[in-house]
From TrEMBL, chain A:
It comes from the Bacteria. This is 2-oxoglutarate ferredoxin oxidoreductase subunit beta. Residues 66-214 form the Thiamine pyrophosphate enzyme TPP-binding domain. InterPro entries: 2-oxoacid:Fd_oxidoreductase, THDP-binding, TPP_enzyme_TPP-bd. SUPFAM superfamilies: Thiamin diphosphate-binding fold (THDP-binding). Coiled coil: none annotated. Transmembrane segments: none annotated. Pfam families: TPP_enzyme_C. Keywords: Oxidoreductase.
From TrEMBL, chain B:
Keywords: Oxidoreductase. This is Ferredoxin oxidoreductase. It comes from Bradyrhizobium iriomotense. Residues 22-187 form the Pyruvate/ketoisovalerate oxidoreductase catalytic domain. CDD domains: TPP_PYR_PFOR_IOR-alpha_like. SUPFAM superfamilies: Pyruvate-ferredoxin oxidoreductase, PFOR, domain III, Thiamin diphosphate-binding fold (THDP-binding), TK C-terminal domain-like. NCBIfam families: OAFO_sf. InterPro entries: 2-oxoacid/accept_OxRdtase_asu (IPR022367), Pyruvate:ferred/Flavod_OxRd (IPR050722), Pyrv/ketoisovalerate_OxRed_cat (IPR019752), Pyrv_Fd/Flavodoxin_OxRdtase_N (IPR002880), Pyrv_flavodox_OxRed_cen (IPR002869), THDP-binding (IPR029061), Transketo_C/PFOR_II (IPR009014). Gene3D superfamilies: 3.40.50.920, 3.40.50.970, Pyruvate-ferredoxin oxidoreductase, PFOR, domain III. Residues 223-387 form the Pyruvate flavodoxin/ferredoxin oxidoreductase pyrimidine binding domain.
Length: 351, 615
């Protein structure tokens, strides 16, 4: 059930962001997911990222499909409009919403069943259309709500809770997103908030199609030995190529990392991403390099995480369609209707 | 030519062109139809074409009809047989006493003709080949040459055709003069070598008036422009693709910001119909007017989203240009076969609003109205066209728009209203009409947000699996549908001259054939009151009409008499009193068919025609 409202009181001394909102203003209802679910950590990271970015909560539209992951938009940004749509169809609903009002921030939340199986096509096409959005897949390799069937991101050879070995090849959504031209591509782990929060923040500030695949273990059905999406497995095989801070004209989102070489990427809106390189040779501006790097590491059983690719000067669908700056949903008859004089001319041309 | 007197008719005959598709004949044939219109004589042309791009048979039929009967007539008075592949069938289809026009460059054995028709041979290929060297020109101008020959044979004014060509190639001097040259090549040859005119003649008249000549799909697209649609998402499917294409071209002309040149619209060709309707629903949820255009198979794919639109109460406009189903069916043939599929689309208990325009003028009006209705009722509105209206040019009254008209954006709670402290329940029926208020995303920092979902929820959009809460909501949706009855276009009734116990119900593209059939039936002494249904849910006048008549014929273009089923189901009346008259072979229904079917049934009822009783 997702109807449990959270109490509104909070400590009077709670820290406020630039807009005067506290962390609590970015929260939603109480989660009804299983205790320890990776998805709840992602929810917390989204809240953190939006708080840190000082986003007005109601200016975010949160759109999801169907599944455990798709329920989560009810648990964050309680003052935002949310749309728990149809299984696998979040991308089209988000695309339409985005076309109607280019001024809002679009957060698409989906799962691996939602995006890699039933909605694989919509995932692909929203990416290739360069919809300005942050598309997060909460990837646990399993169908949770229907109790533990393999999803299309489950690795070949991994075992289900019931002991069945998966014989199908896995779909790597990151690889697909790279191939289809996503201009911000990242992978992270729900258990690594320090990496995930700035990734979400940077993705929100990115103009264009941002995609983040977040490995998010299913505590109920996919956290056992033999699973390649369990907390233990992901921790052991996590190969982070970088860590980042996002700078938006105030204090950077500070996380403690060991010092390393730092590369600063300036995004279109002026925000900066400070990338602390872990793998010195990894270049996040090299799409082809990223694809090769991912393949090589996947073959070794490693899960590459971090900001894998970014094009800071990306274009989005509205630019491709050359739409007016005013959101289309604010245009009225005076703006849209050519009027009777024009119609008379049209009639005359049809005789 | 002996058995039968040649047909003699002025301004009332059918010419059918048999062509090979991809041969460039379409524009010459359309020119022929337009030229007759310029004589002040109404025409009703129809494309009969295969699901193919090049090489298969295609026909273009022009009904010349001074009396203004715009439905298909049936039968062919003159066949322009340009396709050897379909020759035998084409020749066989000519009415006794009719005319066969063909390319006589290659001699044909006499067995290939008929004795009871007039055969007119023109060496089109020879004329074209001796004039042009380029193979493409030879082919294209051959079409204009036959147009020239027909002009002579049918006594058409060549000046009017020249004028049309002049308008078509305005500013393209070379094309203009070469087309006019080709026209005269054909005309001169016919005048010198054939008996001109034939029994079929076009004579100047004044029956066209201020009417316009437009395809239904283009008119519907224009209705979307005038109705304020800003988002269009679509997936190509015959016969609906030209809606989105026309919307694109209308928007390019009329929807760019004068100062910046930027587009006040967004058109996306989706990856499939699921994405198309998803985009429409996302855009409408976010307060834009959005639509998609599709046909039967697309409707099948969209049904899950249509249920969401119904249950989560999100506006959507779907233009369904119907074609013959089921499955891929006959994709380039017309039917009215998605009535049930649309009226009750999706799983669970659902009902949807359908609009049935009769011609392009109504397609324009109803398309524009559909956006008001969608936002007022917060649900899917189907604009039910079909291939016959959508893809053929049809003579209709001029399109009209009242400049004082503002869009009805429905019940939207604004930031100001929320600030005043108005109680916002997304699914709360505050006015008793079943229609709740909605808010646009991003409207207010702390008030009015809600979580949209296809799952059950209470009046304040809070998730709930309580049976009473669910049923309360489902009942409100019924109330909302009742409200719709009085918002949609009402049926139009026309009564017979004398009181009668018999009525007929029809809708959409059947209208012109029905109007003509009434005349034929009256001539046989059958009196019928008629009701043209223009929307579902049915207005109360439908029930009154049924109550006032012993038998009501329901004329439609599908096998299972779907509108009749819907009437029986929604009005709970005795099905025996509703007599199905169905035509579903993929060709447009004709007056002859309707008159025969109804006339036979009347005879079967042993109705003594009044005239006979009197005499």
């Amino acid at each position: 059930m997702t109807y449990i409202a959270k109490p509104k009181f909070h400590h009077p001394g709670l820290k406020k962001n630039e807009l005067g909102y506290t962390h609590r203003d970015y929260e939603g209802k109480i989660s009804t997911l299983c205790a320890g679910c990776g998805h709840d950590s992602i929810t917390a990271s989204i809240i953190e990222a939006c708080y840190e970015l000082s986003i007005e909560p109601h200016r975010v539209a949160k759109i999801s499909g169907i599944g455990c992951s798709s329920k989560t938009p009810d648990y964050f940004l309680g003052n935002s409009h949310g749309f728990n749509s149809v299984h696998g169809r979040m991308p089209s609903v988000l695309t339409g919403a985005n076309l109607a009002n280019r001024d809002l921030i679009y957060l698409g939340v989906s799962g691996d069943g939602d995006s890699a199986s039933i909605g694989f096509g919509q995932f692909a096409h929203s990416i290739r259309r360069a919809v300005n959005m942050t598309y997060i897949v909460e990837n646990n390799g399993v169908y949770g709500l229907t109790k533990g069937q393999f999803s299309a991101t489950a690795d070949r050879g991994s075992k289900s809770k019931k002991g069945v070995t998966n014989t199908d090849n896995a779909i790597d959504l990151v690889a697909i997103a790279l191939q289809l031209g996503a201009t911000f591509v990242a992978r992270s782990f729900s258990g690594d908030k320090a990496q995930l929060v700035p990734l979400i923040a940077a993705a929100i500030r990115h103009k264009g199609a941002s995609f983040i695949d977040v490995i998010s273990p299913c505590i109920a059905f996919n956290n056992h030995a033999g699973s390649t999406k369990s907390f233990d497995y992901v921790r052991e095989h996590n190969d982070a190529v970088n860590r980042l801070d996002v700078l938006v004209g105030r204090d950077p989102i500070s996380v403690d990392y060991a010092p390393g070489s730092v590369q600063v990427v300036e995004q279109h809106d002026g925000s900066k991403i400070a990338l602390r390189k872990i793998d010195a040779d990894y270049d996040p501006h090299d799409r082809l390099g990223a694809m090769t790097f991912l393949q090589k590491h996947a073959a070794k059983g490693q899960i590459v995480t971090g900001l894998l690719y970014v094009d800071p000067d990306a274009e989005d669908l509205h630019e491709h369609l050359d739409t007016v700056e005013t959101p289309l949903n604010r245009l009225e008859a005076d703006d849209l209707c050519p009027g009777s004089a024009v119609l008379d001319k049209i009639n005359a041309s049809l005789r | 030519m002996s058995d039968k007197k040649p047909i003699s008719s002025v301004n009332d005959f059918v010419v059918r062109f048999a062509n090979v598709n991809g041969s460039g004949s379409a524009s010459a044939n359309e020119l022929f139809a337009r030229a007759i219109l310029r004589h002040g004589v109404p025409v009703s042309p129809r494309n009969i074409f295969p699901s193919n791009i090049q090489g298969l048979p295609t026909w273009y039929e022009v009904r010349v009809t001074e009396s203004g009967h715009l439905g298909a007539r049936g039968g062919v008075d003159m066949m322009v047989a340009m396709n050897p592949q379909t020759w035998d069938k084409d020749v066989a289809g000519i009415e006794p006493g009719g005319y066969l026009f063909y390319d006589s460059t290659k001699p044909m054995p006499s067995t290939k003709f008929r004795d009871d028709i007039t055969v007119i041979g023109v060496p089109l290929t020879a004329i074209a080949n001796s004039t042009y060297t380029d193979p493409r020109q030879r082919q294209l101008f051959k079409n204009i040459i036959y147009l020239g020959a027909l002009a002579a044979l049918l006594d058409m004014d060549p000046k009017l055709i020249e004028q049309l060509i002049g308008e078509q190639y305005k500013g393209k001097e070379k094309l203009l003069s070469s087309n006019i040259h080709a026209l005269h090549l054909g005309r001169d040859w016919a005048l010198q070598n054939l008996k001109c005119p034939t029994g079929l003649r076009v004579k100047k008249s004044d029956k066209v008036g201020d009417r316009i000549f437009i395809e239904g799909n283009s008119a519907a697209a224009l209705g979307a422009v005038y109705g304020g649609a800003t988002v269009c998402a679509w997936y190509p499917i015959t016969p609906s693709s030209s809606v989105a294409e026309a919307f694109t071209s209308h928007c390019k002309k009329y929807r760019h910001d004068a100062a910046t040149g930027k587009a006040k619209y967004a058109i996306v060709q989706g990856e499939d119909e699921l994405a198309s309707i998803g985009i429409v629903i996302g855009a409408s949820w976010n307060g834009a007017r959005a639509f998609t255009a599709t046909s039967g198979p697309g409707i099948s794919l969209m049904t899950e989203f249509i249920g969401l639109s119904y249950f989560a109460e999100i506006p959507a406009v779907i233009m369904n240009i119907q074609r013959a189903g089921p499955s891929t069916g006959m994709p380039t043939r017309t039917q009215q076969c998605d009535i049930i599929a649309c009226a009750y689309a999706s799983h669970g208990d659902t009902k949807h609003v359908l609009l049935f325009p009769e011609d392009p003028a109504e397609a324009f009006e109803f398309a524009a109205a559909a956006f008001d209705l969608a936002e007022r009722l917060q649900t899917t509105i189907f604009l039910m066209l079909d291939l016959d209206i959508g893809m053929n040019h049809r003579l209709c009254r001029p399109l009209k728009w009242d400049d004082a008209r503002q869009y009805d954006r429905g019940k939207v709670m604004t930031a100001e209203m929320l600030e005043e402290g108005r109680d916002f329940g997304r699914y709360l029926d505050v006015d008793g009409d079943g229609i709740p208020y909605r808010t646009y995303p991003g409207a207010h920092p702390t008030k009015g947000s809600y979580f949209t979902r296809g799952t059950s929820r209470d009046r304040y959009a809070r998730y709930s699996e309580e049976g009473t809460v669910y049923a309360d909501n489902m009942q409100r949706l019924v109330r909302k549908f009742e409200t719709a009855q009085d918002l949609v276009p009402r049926p139009l009734q026309a009564n017979a001259e004398r009181p009668t116990k018999y009525g007929v119900i029809y809708f959409g593209s059947t209208a012109p054939a029905m109007d003509e059939a009434i005349g034929l039936l009256e001539a046989r002494g059958h009196q019928l009151d008629r009701l043209r249904i223009r929307a579902f849910p049915f207005h109360s006048s439908v029930a009154s009409f049924l109550a006032e008549h012993d038998f009501v014929y329901v004329v439609e273009q599908n096998r299972d008499s779907q509108l009749r089923q819907l009437i029986v189901n929604e009005n709970g009346i005795d099905p025996v009193r509703l007599v199905p008259i169905v035509h579903y072979d993929g060709s447009p229904i004709t007056a002859r068919f309707i008159a025969k079917a109804i006339g036979d049934h009347q005879d079967h009822l042993k109705v003594t025609p009044l005239r006979k009783a009197v005499s």
